[in-house]
Amino acid sequence: GLDKHEACTGQGAAPHSQKAATLLRFLRARPGKIEAAAAMLEEALDWRRDFEIDRKIHEWRSELASCTSPRARLVQKYTNLVSLGLDREGLPTVINRHHNGDYMGLCREIGSEAMVAYNCMIVEDQFVHAHQRMMKTGHCLVSFIDVHDLYGIVSSRGF
Q1: According to a count of CB atoms within 10 Å of the terminal CB, is the N or C end of the chain lower?
Q2: Is there a contact between 144 and 93 (Cβ–Cβ < 8 Å)?
Q3: Which residues, at least 6 apart from 140, have a Cβ–Cβ distance to it below 8 Å?
Q4: pLDDT, tens digit, for every residue of 46-86?
Q5: Which of 96, 156, 90, 97 is nearest to 129 (CA)?
């Protein structure tokens, strides 16, 4: 089964196949189709393994915390992802101010793999916080709030 998938058992990996919130998200993505949800989860786990996302997130987290590398300083200075705090359920809220950042410029300067790892790290942190909150409250919490501020990017006439 998926419990033995390398993305769930490798060094630094989380047991994604045993997390209720993860399983629920995939089941909701393929309502009433358990085999399709399992295949979709396996594909996601294959990507995690092949991209080595857990290792890359761990490395990025350390690099950003020390803020000693040029690319960590660039991300700290120019990121457009900002934590707004917690919502009334106690879940994290993040705003992505697309107009305040130069995503492609950051990709060019630090590399697209580093940007993927950075964005995944933000989302993973939100999942961890939601899981901790779920364990504390006993309520199944599988979501959090991401606000995408498109001011100045889309016309006033809409999309």
Answers
A1: C
A2: yes
A3: 20, 21, 24, 134
A4: 999 999 999 999 999 999 999 989 999 999 888 888 888 88
A5: 90
